[in-house]
Amino acid sequence: MWTELKALADAYGDRHILDLFQNGNRAEAFSVKDCNMLFDYSKTQIDDEIRAGLIAVAEKADLATRRDAMFGGAKINETEGRAVLHTALRNLNGTPVGVDGQDVMPEVLATLDKMSAVAENVRASDFTDVVNIGIGGSDLGPAMAYIALSPYHSGPRCHFVSNVDGADIADTLAGLDPAKTLFIVASKTFTTIETMTNARTALAWLEKAGLSADGRFIALSSNKEKAAEWGIPEDRVLGFEDWVGGRYSMWGPIGLSLMIGIGPDNFRDFLVGGQAMDLHFRNAPFDQNMPVMLALVGMWHNQVLDYATRAVLPYDNRLARLPAYLQQLEMESNGKGVSMDGADLTCQSGPVVWGEPGTNGQHAFYQLIHQGTRVVPCEFLVAAEGHEPDLAHHHALLVANCLAQSEALLRGRDLDEARGKVADKFEGDELERQARHRVFPGNRPTTTLAYQKLTPQMLGQIIALYEHRVFVEGVILGINSYDQWGVELGKELATALGPLVTGETGTDGKDGSTAQLVQYVRSFL
Ligand code: F6P
Fold it and tell me: Is the pTM of this model over 0.90?
């Protein structure tokens, strides 16, 4: 599938991206503009022929049919026999969506109403602090969005505990008043060891203060039975169906902490944003379709050019947790080595995703991005407007830095220019040596997603954009983006290792390294 594109890549040799801008309208021609967003991928090697080749790959994978199947409730999560319908959670006008012949929308909208009522109650109550206990998809989405939307905070303070490391819950609870703290136990399965351990610790903390769980716990789960076993009555459980994948679940009950923090109206705006991106994804032609082009640019870099990682660099400090959120979304979804039918993939799976907000990253790891030997495609995000009108000069600097980085990565600095920078200080061989350290290869690919302002609606659009990108990549790779078998082995082994770590059983049968590490740790206990 990639042969023709690899041939195009080989054919362009050492062509410079900057030269592609000789064609006057390149920036506009290699951008997608919609929904108050501009996705500019003109600072890449993609030209008309390459774009046509990439779109042909998407068409060959029958992307449009697969997309419609997902929105229509087909069971595209084939290894688990489930539909994939997080989009139904933001289908605010309630157009019917059928699973097994049943319209799911009345239940979805009723749950949204129930969530809103719960959130309003909590916001009007004496609770000053809400602690969401969950991990992975039951943590990263609301935790990321809660920070992203801090200008909209109006309810009790929300905290997020995820790690089984006792430090997480201990640090979170330190300073909180048990009488004024509400716990939300967020777990699709209600069996996740980290979450259940933290929930028990939370209960013990309340009990130590002479309080009971009554009225202080809410569960968010697909498994009402397990929540009931745990002692949370059904009327305090907000449920959702198995067709909402964990890492796609922040649009429904798993988003309760966010809704409590920003209020139901703002949360609804977040859903409006997701829905707007769904509409765009369903209707825009592929070359004007943001998720499709975002995915194809990514696949050009990863599957064709073999660039193993992708840096996500938000010039928007409140998106500090976006890279972590995207790590789960993209790597748990598309980090798979077999295709839907069980055959080995014949190309690379999804890339390693990493990043940090700008400008902080500039003073940390950008050195490697500019002068290291590996090419790291960078995805910049930047808002036109900030939320601090009094600090407009900060925002101007922020935007200038974002644009400067992609410009520097595009242009680079050649040896002549580098010589000019130090010619007044050095001469001869020393000038040559010093100049070489100041050369920037340039010609490094970047994309920029610019948007008006980080409002709840815009955040919804951004998150839905990335969700659909993952979907497009998964369809083209022919994998199931909606299971996560790769996390199971570690979980099983951790359960088995527990008694070894506590010394209840010995290390017989373990490999030498694991046995040594267990013994080393035990020697301090
Ligand atoms: O271990 C991976 C995973 O299953 C994720 O996919 C999921 O988001 C997370 O664990 C938490 O699962 P749960 O919501 O069932 O506690």
Answer: yes
